[in-house]
Specification:
This protein is α+β, with helices and mostly antiparallel strands and 591 residues long. It is built from 19 helices and 17 strands. It folds into three domains: 229 residues, Histidine kinase-like ATPase, C-terminal domain (Heat Shock Protein 90, 2-Layer Sandwich), CATH 3.30.565; 166 residues, no CATH class; 154 residues, no CATH class. It has an eight-stranded mixed sheet with strand order 5-4-3-6-2-1-7-8. Strands 9, 10, 11, 12, 13 and 14 form a six-stranded mixed sheet that branches.
């Protein structure tokens, strides 16, 4: 079919409409360029070049390079002449929309005009000559144009061929943004840094060596300044779960720094969502926590610094706090969505990825620019009651909403427990600052008659040491068995100790005999721990947490002294009642 035989395709009433669409809600240039990459991936491209063209601009007192054009070149399947002719209209999307990254039919045009005034799209197939479709906002407004200009055969611009002639394969597409008047920043190197950070995370499953979720693509950014090209290295995966390799985590580019907490299709980590009567789609949760040595090194930073904040990898972790929602292998958003407090520094040590297919877009509330999810925020109990009522009446979206929140809350709770259990009361054979539990050993009279001393008398030395070793290893701080033995021997004569655990019920603390020590066990599932103890522990000023631990350890010693003359059940009931009243009364301290 020749270009003369093609009829014009309608667009929205132009002029003012296109000016309005320019404010389509793209947060930045990286989000806009991601839409173009989506199309390249959908076209099965495995080589994608992003590049900028810059020229010098004379200002009053200086002369600076300024980006005037941004391009994306791929080796995908290309477009036929008729598809190309309509590709810049709104609502145009070829192929099976339910299985593609790009589904809404607005991404190419809307993302482009959010950054520039003229879009040129060249596409070719099977070694044939390229065809060109374009949309020029100034031209539309000046002429009153209401329909798209039909695509026609056209040569790729010489300035592009001079740099990429050898990279152009038999089929492919070239998108050019010209007259870029709304990009984030006009300097190519700064623009690259901003785009790199975002794109490496959004497309991470297409950048790593594992083709489980997305086949690997080579995505590269080049800058062409006054005709001179500066080529970068291919983008590397930025994985909030820290499982993919290669990646761009400083110092750990070729290794995983987290441990997977589950595998795909593991019971408790998926939901089969009924999105239409009789039709289901499986949603997956994939989770991880930092390896003990990674978290431990970060948690033992010097007083006054943020957790791991003074390390390059720690800052990298800090920039990746959130739940990653991944649709067809492409991240939509990384955000806490109200499910946890992202300001708490220990949240960086766990990762959670939610994977879903486009058929669930309406359930998640995927925006048409694929930058956000509008229907997935955490709901307070009162609001969730209304959702549950709708679910019982057969509303499929409400049913999903209730089940999703219930499962995600449980999964995040398990991850936080695992991290919190490691991060508090870190033991080391060479601590930077002696913890309060070590300092107070000298304040205790070892000759006093205690329950723990009587229990210890019935055990041999090897058993007492082994109990301490087991405790240290259970705390999960990355300590080896050899180091745990050294620490246990150093602490062999401790008569009081402190550790963490998690259990249901109202009890805030327990007291157990481990080795020779009456050991204070703090329940990290208790409201007091979550609302007060943990935040106090994370303060730069360590005096408040030392004082709080001293009070709790004083109780522990008192119980140990009194246990010889009183039954165990008395103290169990006392601690249970105490924990229950703490839970009731601290409500008044939250306001």
């Amino acid at each position: 079919m020749s270009s003369q035989e093609l009829s014009s395709s309608p667009i929205f009433p132009a002029g003012k409409a296109l000016s309005s669409f320019r404010d389509g809600g793209y947060k930045n240039t990286a989000n806009a360029i991601a839409e173009i990459i989506d199309n390249s991936i959908d076209a099965d491209a495995d080589k994608i070049k992003i590049f900028t063209l810059s020229d010098y601009v004379q200002y009053t007192n200086t002369r600076q390079l300024k980006v005037n054009t941004i391009g994306v070149l791929d080796n995908g399947g290309g477009m036929t002449l008729d598809v190309l002719s309509s590709c810049l209209g709104f609502g145009e999307s070829a192929g099976d929309k339910t299985s593609k990254i790009g589904r809404f039919g607005v991404g190419l045009t809307q993302s482009s005009i959010s950054q520039c005034k003229r879009i040129e799209v060249y596409s070719w197939q099977n070694g044939e000559k390229p065809n060109l479709a374009y949309l020029d906002i100034d031209e539309v407004q000046a002429s009153g144009q209401q329909n798209l200009t039909p695509a026609k055969t056209s040569k790729i611009p010489k300035e592009i061929l001079s740099h990429y002639g050898e990279a152009i394969e038999d089929s492919g597409t070239l998108v050019l943004w010209k007259n870029c008047d709304r990009i984030d920043i006009s300097k190519s190197d700064a623009l690259y840094r901003r785009m790199n950070k975002h794109l490496c995370r959004v497309f991470r499953h297409f950048l790593d060596d594992d083709d489980d979720l997305g086949n690997k693509r080579i995505i590269q950014f080049d800058s062409i300044d006054e005709g001179v090209i500066s080529a970068s290295k291919p983008l590397l995966a930025n994985d909030p779960l820290y499982l993919l390799t290669p990646n761009n985590c400083p110092g750990y580019e070729n290794e995983s720094t987290n441990e997977a907490m589950n595998v795909l299709d593991q019971d408790g980590y998926f939901i089969d969502v009924e999105y239409e009567p009789g039709l289901t789609s499986r949603l997956h949760f994939l989770t991880s926590i930092a390896k003990p040595e990674i978290q431990s090194a970060g948690d033992q930073m010097t007083t006054g610094s943020k957790t791991a904040g003074s390390t390059a990898y720690g800052k990298h972790y800090g920039d990746n706090v959130g739940i990653s929602f991944v649709r067809s292998g492409r991240e939509i958003i990384l955000n806490h969505k109200g499910y946890f407090d992202a300001k708490v520094t220990t949240q960086r040590w766990w990762g959670c990825e939610v994977r879903f297919d486009p058929v669930l877009d309406q359930f998640f509330g995927v925006t048409n620019n694929k930058q956000d999810l509008t229907d997935i925020e955490w709901l307070a109990p009162g609001d969730m009651t209304d959702v549950a009522d709708d679910a019982r009446e057969g509303n499929l979206k409400a049913k999903f909403r209730a089940e999703f929140q219930r499962e995600l809350v449980r999964i995040i709770g398990d991850l936080r427990k695992a991290v919190d259990k490691r991060s508090s009361g870190v033991r080391t054979s060479k601590p930077r600052i002696k913890p309060i539990v070590e300092v107070i050993q000298d304040d205790i009279d070892p000759n006093e008659s205690t329950h723990s001393a009587n229990v210890a008398k019935s055990k041999d030395k090897d058993t007492l040491i082994q109990e301490k070793i087991d405790l240290i290893l259970a705390e999960g701080n990355g300590t080896t068995e050899e180091d745990a033995k050294i620490i246990a021997e150093e602490q062999e004569d401790w008569v009081i100790d402190i550790t963490l655990d998690a259990w249901g019920g109202s009890t805030f603390i327990d007291v157990k005999v481990i080795g020779k020590a009456a050991t204070l066990v703090i329940n990290i599932d208790h409201d007091f721990y979550k609302e007060f103890y943990k935040p106090i522990e994370e303060m730069n000023d360590k005096r408040p947490i030392k004082a709080l631990q001293a009070v709790l350890l004083a109780y522990t010693r008192s119980e140990d002294l009194a246990r010889n003359a009183n039954p165990k059940e008395l103290f169990d009931e006392l601690r249970d009642d105490w924990g229950r009243y703490i839970r009731k009364m601290i409500r008044h301290a939250k306001n």
